[in-house]
Amino acid sequence: MLRDVMGKTFRLLGYTIQYGCIAHCAFEYLGGIVVCSGPSMEPTIQNSDIVFSENLSRHFYCIQKGDIVIAKSPNDPKSNICKRVIGLEGDKVCISSPSDFRKSHSYVPKGHVWLEGDNLRNSTDSRCYGPVPYGLIRGRICFKIWPLNDFGFLRASPNGHRFLDD
Q1: Average pLDDT over residues 130-143
Q2: Which one of the listed residues 40, 53, 57, 126 is annotated catalytic?
Q3: Which distant-in-sequence residues (6+ apart) come within 8 Å of 110 by Cβ?
């Protein structure tokens, strides 16, 4: 009887470990559901919106200008940020605030991206902490899941003028 109980316990433990590994790989490499918080991406993503983030793009270096990404915060590695990619390595970006009279520009260094929130007046982004290393990107947001009336692919940036073609 003890042998039977021990056998069932080890079998259950083995299945638990197997399914745990499968779940880890799915969330790490395929994607997952993310609840966004904060006003920095308004009006595109509102506080408490639920989105689907896919992780394959970051592994295959397929992140493009205009994509909305989830990244580790350069200021606080325990938290994630949700921002739009404004510039890739080598791109010229505007590093000044929209209210600044004199506009200043810089180039995104190799291995980095320039991230900004859609709500420029209420966003802590690359204009504050500089270019973000590509390795901090966790995934690319594909579409909004909740609220249901906004279900679908995300709209284009309201700050399209921030994308420089130099």
Answers
A1: 90
A2: 40
A3: 89, 90
Catalytic choice (57, 65, 83, 157): 83
Round to whole Å and give the CA distance between 28 and 24.
6
Tell me how far apart the alpha carbons of residues 13 and 94 are, in angstroms, rounded to a whole number: 54
Q: Is the pTM for the entire model greater than 0.85?
A: no
Hey, what domains does the chain have and what are their CATH numbers?
33-162 (2.10.109.10)
Burial class of residue 81 in the structure, from the number of CB atoms within 10 Å of its CB (0-12 exposed, 13-18 middle, 19+ buried)? buried
Tens digits of residue pLDDT in 47-60 = 889 998 888 877 77
pLDDT at 12 over 80: yes
83 included as an active-site residue = yes
Tokens of residue 126, six digits? 């690359």
Residue 40 a catalytic site member: yes
